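Objective 1.3, modelling of assemblies. Example input:
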Amino acid sequence: MKIAVCIKRVPDTETRIRPGADGTSIDEAGVKFIMNPYDEFAVEEALQRREKAGSGEVVVISLGPDAAQETMRTALAMGADRGVLLQANPIPADGLTVAKALAAELQGGGWDLVLFGKLAVDDYNNQVGPMVAELLGMPCVTSVVKLEIEAGRGLAERETEGGLEVVEFQLPAVLTCDKGLNNPRYPALKGIMAAKKKPIDIKPAQLGPARLMVQSLTPPPERAAGRIVGEGAAAVPELVRLLREEAKVL
Amino acid sequence: MANVLAVTEQKGGSLRKVSLEVVTAARRLADGLGGRVDALVVGAPGVDATSANLGGAGADRVVVATDPSFAHYQADGYAATVAAQVRRGGYAAVVFAATASGRDLAPRVAVRLDVPLAVDVTELGVEAGKVVCTRPVYAGKALQMVRLDATPALVSVRPNTFPVAPGHGGAGAPTTETVAAETAVARVIVKELKAAEQGSLDVAEAPIVVSGGRGMKGPEHFHLIEELAKAFGNAAVGASRAVVDAGWRPHGEQVGQTGKTVSPSLYIAVGISGAIQHLAGMRTAKTIVAINRDKDAPIFKVADYGIVGDAFEVLPALIEAVRKARAG
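Predicted structure (tokens):
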């Protein structure tokens, strides 16, 4: 099993986000960065597949600034074999530009699986995985919550509106991983030590011109201050009246 | 040429409600660009393109592409069919729904047409002939405004954010045209659909969401959340990350930065304190109600209406009151 996992360095989900001085990106001062949470499911799945197959290689690929090496070290500490950093700072907002750079790196790699997280919790672009699949001419299943692989065939469950879809596909394939697929492991001390010696190949990302241009990044409008209607069940009639007469939602 | 294509969605041969929102957004772009709106309906033969009033939402023309393999969304065939229609029609913009299938479909079409894609758009317009969109990023902790410098401009719109403006339609009933479907070999084959409970709504699309958190004290008490959702009739059940991580509820119900971002008309948070990542996922709801024992819980800072109290005391009374209000 030769598996590529594309991961992204993103701000921690518990971090407050403030627009930066340029007005189009965030102020990174004091922001803690982590591996995109959905990418953890992708890394874990790759490791389990390699363990099950008894042999193979798990390569993590990240497009981002030099600091993304820290994110990659986390994946290496979990058990990935090596990393490839495609340098880009900032990471383009245009998902197609990113997908093309990743596809150029992945092309001809002989991968059985290329895994992504379902989406990145910073730009919410929700597109790079299926774009890479299209660019490489590989089948793609998005938002996978369950996966079985037997003799080159995959059976996956994906979440859709109103239920789960069970789909079948041939390897090699591109999958985007959703919460529920597995429980990502924490890196053990031994893994963290070993990760320091694992190779990360660093090269500039091949980025074409961006055609999705960020005009501004602004804080969301503040919600008008609400009010406490009352305490306990006694407040219910007044709440229902407000929902009906003021908010007009009942 | 400044026409706009609206890619609708159908289920079981009938158009889904979100299709009207897609047409509404497309109408806005077409008005800005000075063009026509074509609504594309992709489905199995017999799909009812009149099952929603596409003309009333602003479609000038309805384009139908059918194939027996298109009863259910299927990435390869749908992407080929949409891309072919865009090439035929020479559109200036294409609007998708940011639903599970729309999120799967739009990026594939973007690659086939070699144009960028703006996803999960909540506001859009035309400036100096270019499509500009606002989209929540960092799960709604910030708004990003983007300009699309390519033709066609591809966007997907977030459900519940483009309400149909009555009387916004064209002069008459839309004309209907049938086009050939592109039946690419499906490389991903749908074997089975495990339907959610009959009549249950997806949390990302429901007009009302009732969410429970740790304050519900255990999975055995979530029937109260379900009953309140049922009392509203058109509500979905949501959950906080804490209760999903604890295994009380399925992850499909999780609202927040690592779950779903929702924009319902009404969001009721019960026993949810309001962590940043949760608030990010629901702050664009039109009306927010919070029920929590802790009067200092951060959720009250974003709630329009709050009740300080025990969920087990408030919920039965609220369920009863909503049932009565809806019956009367």
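The longest helix of chain B spans residues 311-327.
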